[in-house]
Amino acid sequence: MIFSELYSAYYNTVAAIISEIIDGRTDEKELRKLVAEKAFGESITTILPSLKSEKWQLVHKDMTTALEHKPTMPLTNLQKSWLKAISLDPRIKLFDVRFDGLEETEPLFTPDDYYIYDKYNDGDPFEDEGYIQRFRLILSAIRDGLPIKLNMTDRNGRNVFTRCVPIRLEYSEKDDKFRLITSGCHFLPTVNLAKITSCSVYHGEQEFSANQQNIHYGFVTLKIRDERNALERCMLHFAHFEKQAEKNNNNTYTVRIRYDRNDESEMVIRVLSFGPMIEVTEPEYFRELIKAKLIKQKSCGLF
Question: What pLDDT is recorded for position 91?
Fold first, then answer.
């Protein structure tokens, strides 16, 4: 792995302890507190004893160190190359993330090195300055719990104005689009960000409650035949969904997935993409949606 929290936690904790010792702060109670903050609960019984006993030859028994300079954790060339590759993703501009010091670094990969075959080509304009500004304002409003007012274009080309509380942003990998989940606006529970033409923080007198009453969830249960890595592919494909999985007999698994009912059409397409490796067992109406989609495809001469 290029980055690993489990791997780095101990190194960062020991580095912090050595920095404290170099600064002359050797109170064991404070050092234990530092371990508790930076590592794991059980680390108190490992890190300090290993240092004090000189098992890890970085600190002497009298809590001094031969090191003259505080330790640093520079990035490896591989880590820098990975970060440079991520910086080339147009979506990264939405989050105002800086990648200083990578100007001379070769990326580990570029967008030209891979092709996503099951993604639509009319994704959001991630590099449009207006889109970027609206995205950042909405993201800030979500974090601060602030209501917003926005103008958007509906499916009929009409201009729509509304006020709402932004709940969260969701990204559809297949559509390559972001959408906003809202509260306080009954006729507009979800908004495609690309449809928003302007938005700002709402400072009016109308009060909003930030609840998610407009979100309606459904559940679908899948029976997976684990051939051609179907289980692994399914778990990766639905990684951002709430789900439960259990093993059956004969190399099959049952996975129950919760999804937003507003995304039901996309959910049908996602399930169908696995072909005969996945069978919908319930609910019955979702099975009927799958059948209807297959009949429609057959009528178009797709198979």
Answer: 93
Does the pLDDT of residue 52 top 90, yes or no? Answer: no
In the structure encoding, which two tokens stand for residue 289, read together? 């949606």
Residues β-bridged to residue 126: none
**Summary mean pLDDT of the chain:** 86
Distance between CA 180 and CA 222 in Å, rounded? 28
Q: Comparing 1 with 70, which gets the higher pLDDT?
A: 70
The strand ranges marked E within the chain are 148-153, 159-172, 177-183, 190-192, 196-201, 217-225, 242-247, 252-260, 278-282
Distances (CA, A) of 286 to 92, 141, 231, 257, 292: 36, 36, 20, 12, 10
Residue with tokens 């259990």: 246
262 secondary structure, DSSP code? G
The span from the CA of 105 to the CA of 7, in Å, is 24
CA 37/CA 17 separation, integer angstroms? 12
User: What is the C-alpha separation between 45 and 286, in angstroms, rounded?
Assistant: 52
Residue 289 has a CB neighbour count (10 Å cut-off) of 19
DSSP string across 36-66: HHHS-GGGGGTHHHHHHTTSSTTS-TTS--S
C-alpha separations of 78 from 81, 84, 102, 113, 188 in Å: 5, 10, 12, 17, 45
Q: Cα separation of 190 and 170, whole Å? A: 10
Q: Does the N-terminal peptide bond of residue 107 adopt cis geometry, omega within 30 degrees of 0?
A: no
Query: What φ, ψ does residue 102 adopt, rounded to 5°?
Result: -110, 15
pTM of the model: 0.64
